[in-house]
Amino acid sequence: MKAQVRAEDLRFETERRLFCKGSALVRFESLNWEEHKIRQHDPKNVLRLKKIFEKEGCRSLKVGNHIPAIVDQHHLDTAIENAKQNKTWNTGVLPSSYVTIDTENGYPELEFPGGINCLHGFHRIQAAKELRPAEKWWIVDLYLSGISYEMKAILDEEYSNEDRPCDGQIYRKIREYQYLPQKADALVLPATCVSFEMRWWSRFNESRQKKLRGLFRPYTLNRLVAAGFDALTKIPALFDAGMMVTTLHTVLASRFYEEIQHYLNYIFKAFVGFFDGIENGIQRLDKPSVKAVELASVAKNGVLYGVTFSSLEALY
To answer: How many angstroms from the chain centroid is the CA of residue 112?
Structure first.
């Protein structure tokens, strides 16, 4: 396994150096994210980052704080050429993303009218917007379109190490890599999926790992409960807002496997029903909205109580 990990690391580092064309200053309005990343907006995380920035500064010069983004070669060439014509950059080569430069003047400010797709950093930019009204840019590491699925996953997931993902996100990523090799259009080798899965397992301590592995234990009725949770992962905001691995042992100890699965299916159907007739309603659901539903459920003396995770453990 260690030899495989070393080989993968070498392969990914080679690809990283091949596709990363350097770093540049890019204005906030040109930074885009996929819709599902915007839906994961977490006000608490933004507040946490604001407090860090207020104390330490935004520290965008630090290599680890750069935001990776995807751009095609034509748009990158055009942006560099425009910078040269505007005399804001004198060379066609961008600063290396591996080198820390002590001043913002060491980076060109590139313009991308159509925007570029960032792989992470949404919360960081939301916090910076509130703290840096006079500075509307961030340092971005520019990767050419065409990088592999694995490389995108690494660039995205390595950033998550800075802020511990919630139990729901870790669960979803573990299941994603467990099921990915079974898909006909899978772009990742099965061995690589195992490696990526193990990286996510490592984010749980031993106690949490034991509880979750118990849920996945083969040839047991626990799998009925796992199937119920798997269905809920189709609504990431709901799942992430309520999943608590620490309570699994209590839930499973009841041995009401079919009842729990039925309850989880009820939660799923209830939330799908809430958005019936609303275009992309489920896709637009975010954590704050889930919490609002929970509060409304309690406030209405239980009329909706039971459609959220918060009551699952109490039932048994």
So the answer is: 24
Same domain flag for 179 and 309 = yes
Both 151 and 212 in a single domain?
A: no
Residue 248: how many CB atoms within 10 A of its CB?
A: 23
Those residues of the chain that have pLDDT short of 50 are 161, 300-307, 314-316
3-state secondary structure of 138: strand
The model carries a pTM of 0.80
Phi, psi angles (nearest 5°) of residue 137: -140, 165
**Cα within 13 Å of Cα(304), Cβ side:** 20
Of 138, 162, 186, the one marking the end of a domain is: 162
Q: In terms of domains, do 56 and 94 share one?
A: yes
Identify whether residues 48 and 23 lie together within a single domain.
yes
Q: Is 46 within 8 Å of 126 (Cβ atoms)?
A: yes
Structural contact between residues 136 and 26, judged by C-beta atoms closer than 8 angstroms: no
Identify whether the C-beta of residue 98 lies closer than 8 Å to the C-beta of residue 13: no
What integer pLDDT is reported at residue 315 of this predicted model?
47
Q: Which 8-state DSSP code applies to residue 142?
A: E
215: left (phi over 0), alpha (psi -120 to 50) or beta: alpha
> Based on the structure, what is the number of domains in the chain?
2
Rounded to 5°, angle at Cα 87 from 84 and 93: 40
Sheet of 109-110: strand order equals 31-32, 116-118, 67-71, 137-144, 20-27, 109-110
